[in-house]
Amino acid sequence: MKIFNLFLTLLFALFAAVQFNDPDPWGWALMYGFVAAVCGFAAFGRFHAYALYLGLGIALIWMATLLPGFVNWIKMGMPTITGSMKAESPHVELTREFLGLALCILVLGWQWRRARQSDVFPHLK
Questions:
Q1: What does the alpha-carbon distance between residue 69 and residue 90 come to, in Å, rounded to a whole number?
Q2: DSSP output for the chain
Q3: Residue 36: which of 14, 21, 20 has the closest Cα?
Q4: Nearest-angstrom CA–CA distance, 2 and 18
Q5: What Cα–Cα distance (Å) separates residue 88 from each residue in 81, 93, 96?
Q6: Distances in Å between the alpha carbon of 97 and those of 18, 20, 26, 106, 114?
Q7: Can you give the pLDDT at residue 9?
Q8: Which of 10, 23, 43, 88 is the most exposed place for a label (fewest CB within 10 A)?
Q9: CA quadruple 94, 38, 25, 11: dihedral sign
Q10: For 25-63, what is each residue's pLDDT tens digit?
Q11: pLDDT-based confidence at 107, cuts 50/70/90?
Q12: CB contact at 8 A, 80 and 52
């Protein structure tokens, strides 16, 4: 697990680094950087339950604000969102952001589950 967590740390750090050419870089850089930090700590067996709760809460609320755009994309027949790196249509940007948050939630949820299984937080069991 240590190597996989270090891989996730590097991956999310890279995700954070490439956000600075985006129109709204700071929120994304912080979110991806946060996930990278959680994975980095987890690589060494350090889990922080309240940080996981905070990250999951922020990502879920943020994701809920993007849900209407994601649903609209599905109703449009799920046109491609990979045509170019520049988002020509609003649905492209909203869908990519929604899926980026889904990825963050997936990793944070996995880390929360690992924290529950460890003896670090017996009150979470």
A1: 8
A2: -HHHHHHHHHHHHHHHHGGGGSSSHHHHHHHHHHHHHHHHHHHTT---HHHHHHHHHHHHHHHHHHHHHHHHHHHTT---S-S-SS--SHHHHHHHHHHHHHHHHHHHHHHHHHHHHSTT-GGG-
A3: 14
A4: 25
A5: 9, 8, 12
A6: 14, 15, 13, 14, 26
A7: 97
A8: 23
A9: negative
A10: 899 999 999 999 999 999 998 888 889 999 999 999 999
A11: very high
A12: no
Question: What would the pLDDT profile of 78-90 be if each residue is shown by its tens digit?
Answer: 887 776 555 566 6
Tokens of 18: 């490439």
User: Which residue range(s) make up the domain with 110?
Assistant: 2-124
> What's the pLDDT tens digit per position in 21-31?
777 889 999 99
CB 107 within 8 A of CB 39: yes
On the 0-12 / 13-18 / 19+ scale of CB atoms within 10 A, 105 is middle
Report the C-alpha gap between 101 and 64 in whole angstroms.
Answer: 10
8/14 Cα distance (integer angstroms): 10
Number of domains in the chain: 1
